[in-house]
Amino acid sequence: MMKKQLLIILAGILFAGSFAFQPVHASKIVESDREVNQLDEAGSLAKYHDNDINGKNIKIAILDTGIDTTNRDLTFKKAINFTSADSADFTDRNGHGTKIAGIIGARKNGEGLIGIAPNSELYIAKVANDSGKVAFEEVIKGLNWAVQQKVDIINISLEFGKGNEALKEAIDNAVEHDIIVVASAGNIRAEGDTFKAYPGAYPDVISVGMLNVHGQIYADEFKEKKVDVYAPGEDLTSTYFDNKMTLDTGVSYATAYASGYAALVMEDKLSRDESISRESLLKTMKADLNQGINGTPWYVYTGLVLNIVTVCALLGLVIYSLLYRRKTLPKKWSTKIIWVVIASLVFINVIGRVIVYILSS
After folding, report:
1. Mean pLDDT, rounded, of the chain
2. Whose CB among 21, 278, 280, 283 lies 3.0–4.6 Å from 252's, allowing a Cys bridge?
């Protein structure tokens, strides 16, 4: 009898849907007398906010445990519940969905938290019950509802241990409607844990891994997973019940960070009439968020290399000028060499920076 019960428990662990929210440490309440900015890896977030790029007009659907409707930091366009017969009961009683919504879009209102994309439009689909349990059917309904709302991004901070044909069809349908689907690559529950998490493992989904507070990959196991982009996920400030804030760690939160960041990149590209695709968003997100980790695109460092080359060349000109003044070089070389070097520097810098702009756009 004991063996049978054990097998049932193991089966439940392997195949039941669950949130990627099992944190490395428990939530910590954050107290502050000022509005809190989100963790910003290497200033990549500030470069958008400082240019008034905050996710304006970008629609983001959050498939989670609902939302705390009384939180002063959170607003939403539409919301629906798929976990019971009452579609209007989308109130979050778990806390996870409220945290995800805050990381993505907490409003800039002088109190609480400023989200990654504070001006984005949030669409809330409650697909997990108050205990955090979730099934394929509810996620599929949430995906189809998000398509009907014509959202731009769908955030799925949850994971299944296996795939599902109907889930794959719903994901494909969203992608065919030009929606960017962002999902967790799955938490690392134990050393050597490299299981595939769905829907994050589907090829058309942006699968998110986690960075620590130093911008490094949180665990080596993520390198073995199917991860498209890494985002900060350690000690992220989140919105919570009673208008409080918490400090949390987990891939769920990294996924929310990536979804919010995708909204900023999307708004920036739209403002410049650039085309948007999964690939173009990933290029920019990797360049901005993957600093300091293996796999960083080579062009991230091109600007630094060009600066070094320029400084070295200018130092060379100074040395050359000193030698010329001492009459240790043929007089006829001076002007010609100086102009050749200057022209070469201008050419290399222009071409190099144009290439970086093209690759990162």
Report:
1. 84
2. 21
Active site residue 96: yes
Task: Give pLDDT tens digits for 90-119.
Answer: 999 999 999 999 999 999 999 999 999 999
Alpha-carbon distance 280 to 266, whole Å? Answer: 9
**Beta-bridge partners for 210:** 231
Task: Give CA–CA dist 84/177, Å, rounded.
Answer: 27
In which residue are the tokens 């299981």 written?
195
Question: Out of 64, 68, 92, 288, which one is annotated catalytic?
Answer: 64
Helices marked H in the chain: 2-15, 46-49, 96-105, 136-148, 165-176, 221-224, 251-271, 278-289, 302-325, 334-360
Does the pLDDT at position 294 exceed 70? no
Instruction: Read off the pLDDT band of 17 (50, 70, 90).
Output: low
Would you place residue 6 in the very low, low, confident or very high pLDDT band (cuts 50, 70, 90)? Answer: very low
Q: Which of 44, 157, 238, 252 is catalytic?
A: 252
**For residue 20, how many other CB atoms are within 10 A of its CB?**
25
Q: Report which residue type is found at 77.
A: K
Catalytic one of 18, 68, 96, 288: 96
CA nearest to 13, candidates 137, 133, 155: 133
Active site residue 177: no
d(Cα 156, Cα 158) in Å, to the nearest integer? 6
